[in-house]
Amino acid sequence: MLAIQTTLEEGVPLSDVTFCAVDLETTGGSPESSRITEIGAVKYRGGEKIGSFQSLIDPGQPIPPFITHLTGITDSDVAGAPTIASVMPRFIEFLGDSLFVAHSAGFDFGFVNAALRRLDYEPLLQPPLCTARLARRVVWPDVPNVKLHTLAEYFRCVAQPSHRALDDAMACAEVLHALLDRGGRMGILTLGDLQQAVRARGRPNFAKIRLTDALPQAPGVYVFRNAAGDVLYVGKSKNLRQRVKSYFYGDGRKKIDDLLSEMTQVEGIRCSSELEALVMEARLIHQHEPKYNRRGKTWRRYTYLKIDAAEAYPRIKVVHDTKGDATFLGPFGSSSAANLAKEALEESFAIRRCTKPMRASTRFSPCALADMKRCQAPCDGRTDPERYGELIRGLVSSLSSPDGLLEALEGRMNSLAATDRFEEAALARDRLRALGDALSRRRLDAWMVEGQLVLRDASDHRLRLSGGTLLKEGGPDPIPTPCPRERADELTAVREWIRRNPVVVEFADNPPAEPIEGGAALHLLLSRLRAADKPLVADRYR
After folding, report:
1. Torsion from C-alpha of 459, 464, 469, 473, nearest 10 degrees
2. By Cβ atoms counted within 10 A, which residue in 41, 110, 128, 497 is the most buried?
3. Residue 238 near residue 281 (C-beta atoms within 8 A)
4. CA triplet 59, 64, 66: central angle to 5 degrees?
5. Which pLDDT band holds residue 5 (cuts at 50, 70, 90)?
6. Are 77 and 152 within one domain?
7. Please, are residues 56 and 36 in contact by the beta-carbon 8 Å criterion?
8. Is 264 left (phi over 0), alpha (psi -120 to 50) or beta?
9. Smallest Cα–Cα separation from 159: which of 23, 348, 27?
10. 204: pLDDT strictly greater than 60
11. Which residues are marked as active site?
12. Is residue 308 part of a domain?
């Protein structure tokens, strides 16, 4: 005989699940050294009792006096009773494909499987349902003591536990149905809901799972709010109800516990597409700056490289806004990334790096970079504004046509690696990667924000963008160029979605093809740097 228990589908409504409440009496607490003296079980489906099972068992070993005192079962009671070898096949047949239920189920389930293994049968596979664990989710803190006797009294069960197997199994079954009735009001409606509720660790907040009942099983954005209506967290999902429920099922992070403790309401906003959800999430996070969203205030850290050609002797500045009539590159996610790209440009163009303000007539002593021919040194008059201006115009032009710039930077990186200057090669690689990523984003962003776009995704949804903004009723204004940091997350959501998903361009004011010089070189360079998530010369200097 094989003790095979059918695995039930998680989506099965609880009314369609057959539950078998089981209780055992044993000679001790260890399933390896102790033996079963009595099995009691009762089966229910849809709230209706469909059968019961009870049998004393000769354990083949003496029953300790304290067990006899607890259960009333004596050695003489089990003398002549059937052995486990004859009882177990009948019990497994009775259990069938029903769900094994017990109070402190690990004890009873462990004894049954230990007996099956000793008889050379396959153990039960379907995890049991523990009514004690379920009670901790459903009636805590009203019933902090979740002993079977306490719960039977709390629910005014007809059957009362007596430390005899069938009585305790019947009491367990009544407690189970009372818990399922209470759990149904919390949204525990399917077998999957029930199993996740039992596994959940967020006991103090589990009752709030009922707030998910009104959420649609559809894609969109969800918003957690506190009692004052303040937004605590914004997220997105392909199934709003399922995703929000998952917060109650076993996420032990303190941040999640704190969020659930403070949350008193949850709002679900349907979206017609993944891109719409991404954009709405970005807008809501920027608007409300929720305390539990990591991105709530990170947009304030975005930086740009600024080249102001109106200055007498421009330099590359790392700034946090896009004010002024200047050339900008960015936004970068951090100042460190911006500085890497800045250093890459300064390696290729001998512009000044000093921070002193300069007029056309300003003079002061040059630094060491001038003697190294890495700066044209306008500070001591070695170059005039016109000649320096040509250098700046070349720098600005290279941002649009970066062939020569990228080739020179990559050549320097490989040259350093070839001469075993691995740390310098690694730094050159990081600078090149930061600059290449920024130039790539700049090109795609320019295509997205300049005019109208109509895209069709794999689900045949038409997505209309104007100036980089997803067109929805009451939506914000088009995104300007360069993109200000307060709109950067929204534009990033659109850009990265286009990169990840196959889309058809149905209409575009500017063609998606990129005939601009340097486009192919930039693409090939980044492909090499990203290949297998390893830098071009990673194997040489890691």
Report:
1. -100
2. 41
3. no
4. 130
5. very low
6. yes
7. no
8. alpha
9. 23
10. no
11. 163
12. yes
